[in-house]
Amino acid sequence: MTPSPPSPDAQSGARSPERSTPLIKHAVQYESTREVDWDLLTPSMRHYAETKAQNPSALLLYRMGDFFECFFEDAITISRELELVLTAKAAGKDVGKVPMSGVPHHALDRYAALLVEKGYAVAICDQVEEASQKAGPMVRREITRVITPGTILEDGMLNGRRNNFLAAVVIEKQHWGLAYADISTGEFLTIQTSDLEQLTQELLRLQPSEVLYPVDAPDIVGLLRPGEQKLSDAVPDCLPSNFCYTLRPQSNFFLGEARSRLLHRFKLRSLEGMGCDHLPLAVRAAGGLLHYLEDTQRETPVRLQPLHTYQLTEFLVLDHQTRRNLEITQTVRDGTFLGRCCGLSIKP
Length: 348
Hints:
The chain is an alpha/beta fold and 348 residues long. The chain has 3 domains: 8-147, MutS, DNA mismatch repair protein, domain I (3-Layer(aba) Sandwich); 157-314, MutS, connector domain (Nucleotidyltransferase, domain 5, 2-Layer Sandwich), CATH 3.30.420.110; 318-348, no CATH class. The protein contains 9 helices and 13 strands. The protein has helices at 8-14, 43-54, 72-82, 108-117, 196-206, 255-265, 280-296, 320-326, 340-344, and strands spanning 58-64, 67-71, 87-90, 97-104, 121-127, 141-147, 166-172, 175-182, 187-194, 210-215, 222-224, 245-249, 308-309. The strands form 2 sheets. It has a 7-stranded mixed β-sheet with strand order 11-12-10-7-8-9-13. Strand 8 and strand 9 (187-194) form a beta hairpin. The longest helix has 17 residues, at 280-296. The termini are far apart.
């Protein structure tokens, strides 16, 4: 394994030379938490491996002192994606050193934003007690937040000129239900109709940052970055390949659970007032989306507006190719917001 060259950020403090030595080829025996016997790990490394197993589809940033560290396979990933120095750390007497890379705690949001922009989910495992108050051999650490492309709340990570939609899709033959929300503004809408081509066009119109899709096989649950959809048989062809897809358990989208979740969330006795009482696929999509927000936003409950049901017939629909040619939301040449129609829509 060849270490990545240090970036200016790394040279200016992302990794101090005296903290660890550069990782060289064959310096480590284990590159994945799945390869090592956890009983041989130090207490902190065992806790890291256990926490990683609970969040397999996210990059785990683990607070140690003034740094958020990644180990094993996640260290290799962030070293490559962020151009950080890849180092090694002793993980146990019979284990030896394992890959390590990390970022300063004060720069966490900046680095997390870069990872999310590249299509990764990030799980933050922070210290939840002071070292002077610890009752056991190590400071207690817990997952305090999970940041995914569709669940960003931090102002510094958001683009103020476009929505950051999280979508959920349920498909039954030629019928489909779609729910989407922007948790930074509270918008929450759902729809159910037929024709899978219309679903494709609606997703291309919304340009969601992340799409939730239920699957039956729990072993393939995880996050697919843009383009990786083609590598999975779980995602149907009608879903565009240029989005991030988070595969979720089918049980999160069961109709009974989804209905109960919506009723409880909005303190209602019926969904009739929201217009979706007779739309089971729309209800399942909206309930599955709520379930995901509860899973990822544990420390910061999301405030959503009451669910609104809409129909495609309410709008004049321009297909994706027409919007692209008119440059309504981004330019064709470089994908930026400023230019032609989209530039004229911005008030000085």
